[in-house]
Amino acid sequence: xxxxxxxxxxxxxxxxxxxxxxxxxxxxxxVERVAEVLEDLIEDQYPINCRNEPLPGKIELPQGWSxxxxxxxxxxxxxxxxxxxxxxxxxxxxxxLVWIYSHEQFAKRPTEVDLKSVxxxxxxx
Length: 125
Known about the structure:
The protein is α+β, with helices and mostly antiparallel strands. Helix content is 32%, strand content 27%. Strands 1-5-4-3-2 form a 5-stranded mixed β-sheet, with helices on both faces. A hairpin with a 4-residue loop joins strand 4 and strand 5. It is globular and about 40 Å long.
């Protein structure tokens, strides 16, 4: 995307809390791996290992926003499967980090109630 406006990344409070929890559980290379992924997101907001994520009940995103989940591996096995949920605002060139969790914490994704609460807090709905 040469010549396009660069995206910036903002971490939500919930992302910070979930990241700290995972960082304690994994080796120091976990932090480095996540930092690499975030650097890559600045250039490509929709990498091949990401998908559009359905919104929890009755939440509508403002114009220009979309919700995504990115899969990444930090180690072997199910415990090494990490998911990063994030919002993209194409209007303001902004990536808002929502939640990072392991496959052990949630096999699919956090509960609808929890996810809805976090998204409302982030979007100020």
